[in-house]
Amino acid sequence: MHITYFTIEDIGSGLFRNQVINKLNAILAVDSDVTFEILILNSPLKYSKHQKILKEYRSTLSNRIKIKYYPVLPPLRYALSSVLQSNLILKWLELFCRLFVKVKGDIIHCRSYWPTIIASKVYNTPILFDLRSLYPAENVAAGKLEFNSREYKFWLKQENYCIHTAKVNSAVSEAMVSYINSIKPSSVTHLNPIIVNTEEIYFDAEERINMRTKLGWQENIILVYSGSLGVSGLNREALSNILVLFSNLSDNFRFLFLSSDSKHSIEELLIRANIPQDHFYITESNAKELYKWLSASDIGFHALPLQLDSDTRLGTKVVEYWVSGLPVIINKNVGAAVDIVSKYGIGLVVDELTNSYEGLFDEIKQLLTKNRREISNTGKSMFDSKIIAKKYVNSYKDCLKNNRNNKK
């Protein structure tokens, strides 16, 4: 079974490495009959930077993965500002693919909306639509779309089109499955959550001691935030509020930020929350080092603003916290994670707008007594890349099966 994996994800991003390359490698490991071609459309402005990355991938990836890279993606920063602009970009990418890009896959696995729309127009090949997030709702929250505007309704129409066109729709949370099925009740919808490569992320007791000693925080409670502040800084306000809440609870907290975002922008959040400079540390962690920082930490945290799709939200960072054995503190807007915390008791849901939360510090201390191995095993049971890889293979088989059935 040969799969064309179609994405516009920046190949230089950690997300591409963690959620694309790691996923495909995991799928290859569980099914020897699968091969991939990765079709990548990226910005021409990053062409020079991407050449080194492409060379690395082409020299290290299995010969069962081939890469087709095209630096033709227009800037998408303002792509949603008008229906005309969205349509022009879609038409350009459709024309380019029609003229210059041949696909050999039995299936096209489309990561998100843009690839799905393009592939459905150009290729007569069954599509797996891998939503990842609800694009129109996400961009309303990011301030790139106005709710109920002409542009918003245009992208809702595209969403509807993608869901109806795909032979299989893939969701990252139960709430997203329900959302897809509300649009197309007959949809074949599979739950394929975020993956974690458990060979890279795990708890290491020795590194915990080393990193805490390096930080000088051996006796402190370390709260960690890993990843970006969200699309267009979407998470900033919610994070600011939860940091204020933490700072009012205990002077023993220390804050570790692992992010490629501007150090200055993160410092602003911490200073705004009246957290002293010697109480926080900001660094950027590569994939190979992340397990060390997470091992050193005691609790992972995340907070999101209320969004149209809050109930579908989970976040790669939260999943990685659990797999490394960390309990989490989240607000109620990290919807899918709230359900998991409630079901398995591997975290705490807080109201970040509460200035005085009676008993909260005691509840946080209770989190510290939880067994890291048990939390990790719970996380692995849901998000280990080997488990999710098998789910994707089943999705591919259903995609081919549904295509054959539709032709009868």
Question: What can you tell me about this protein's structure?
Answer:
- With 408 residues, the protein is of the alpha/beta class.
- The protein is 47% helix and 15% strand.
- It has helices at 14-30, 47-60, 83-100, 113-122, 135-141, 150-165, 174-183, 205-215, 236-247, 263-272, 290-296, 316-323, 335-344, 360-367, 372-383, 385-407; strands at residues 2-7, 35-41, 65-70, 107-111, 127-130, 168-171, 189-191, 221-226, 253-258, 280-283, 299-302, 328-331, 347-350.
- Strands 3-2-1-4-5-6-7 form a 7-stranded parallel sheet, sandwiched between helices. Strands 10-9-8-11-12-13 form a 6-stranded parallel sheet, with helices on both faces.
- The longest helix is centred in the C-terminal third of the chain and has 23 residues, at 385-407.
- The chain is globular and about 65 Å long.
- The two termini are 21 Å apart.
- The model has no long low-confidence stretch (mean pLDDT 93).
Secondary structure layout:
Blueprint: E1 2-7, H1 14-30, E2 35-41, H2 47-60, E3 65-70, H3 83-100, E4 107-111, H4 113-122, E5 127-130, H5 135-141, H6 150-165, E6 168-171, H7 174-183, E7 189-191, H8 205-215, E8 221-226, H9 236-247, E9 253-258, H10 263-272, E10 280-283, H11 290-296, E11 299-302, H12 316-323, E12 328-331, H13 335-344, E13 347-350, H14 360-367, H15 372-383, H16 385-407
Parallel strand pairs: 1-2, 1-4, 2-3, 4-5, 5-6, 6-7, 8-9, 8-11, 9-10, 11-12, 12-13
